[in-house]
Amino acid sequence: MKTNRSRLFEGKNTGGGSGSGGGDSAFNGQRPITRQTPGLIGVNPDALTVIEMLENVFYPPVAPITALTVNNPVREIGQSAAYTLTWNVTRQSNAITGITVDGVAKVPTGDSQAGTQNGNFPGTIGTFTKSMTATDGTLSSDATATVTYMPRMFWGTTTKDGSSAHPILDADILGLAGSELREDRFKNYANLGGGGTYLLFAFPSYFGTPSYVINGLANTAFTKVRSASNFVNSQGATIVMDVWISNNFYNSALASVTIN
What we know:
The chain contains 2 helices and 17 strands. It has 260 residues and is mainly beta. The strands form 4 sheets. The protein has a 5-stranded mixed beta sheet with strand order 2-8-7-4-5, with no helix packed on it. The chain has a 5-stranded antiparallel beta sheet with strand order 10-9-12-16-15. Strands 11-17-13-14 form a 4-stranded antiparallel beta sheet, with no helix packed on it. The N and C termini lie far apart (77 Å).
C-alpha cells in the first residue's frame, strides 16, 4: 500500500516529458505534529515556512535566566535592617528589554547584566522577601531572595538556682556557652552539665512548655524561674523569654539531654 506523505518542499518539475505538471510546493506548518514523539506530539509549530517550522519546533525561544541573593539571609531579631541584593540576568534567545530589581527599573543593555541593589527592611522581626524580574519583551523570568529574623535559644550551666536570692539575669543568659538561632525548642544535647552546676535553658515564651529527657529517661525536675520576662538580646531587641533551670545540680556531664 502506498503511503501518502506531505512534502515539505518540492521544486517545480520543468522536465520535457508528457507526464503530470509541476510538483506541490505548498507547505502547511500550522497544524499539530502527528509523530508519536514525547514532547512533540500535538505541538502546533504555527509556521508558514519550513525554516519557521524547524525554528519553532527544535529551537523555541528561551526566557532570560534570573538569579537573586541577599546578604545575611538568616539574622537575629534586632540585627541590622540594611540589605544588599546581588542580581544577575543571563541572556538566552532574545535581547533583554526590561529588568526590575526590588521595584527599581534598571537600564537593560540587551545582553547579560549583573549588579547590586541596597535597601532597608521596615523592621527586624519576621520574614521579608525581595524579588526581581527580567523580560525579552515576550518571555520573562523571576527570582526571589528571603531574609528571616529569628530568636536565639540559649543553653548551658549555672551555679545559680534561679531563686529570688540568686536570680538569672540577662547577662547570665548572654554568657551561656551554647546558643543558636531557632524556630522551635526541640533539641538534643550531648555531654551537658557537670562540675556541680545546674542546667539552664532560655528561649522565647511562644516556644511553649518543654519536657525533658535525661539519659533516656523522662525528667520533670525543672523549674521555670523566669516566665514571659523581657530579655534584651545582644542586638538590643527585647524578646519575651522563659528560663528553665534543673532542680538538681550535676557533678558529672550528662551523656544526653533532650528537650521535647
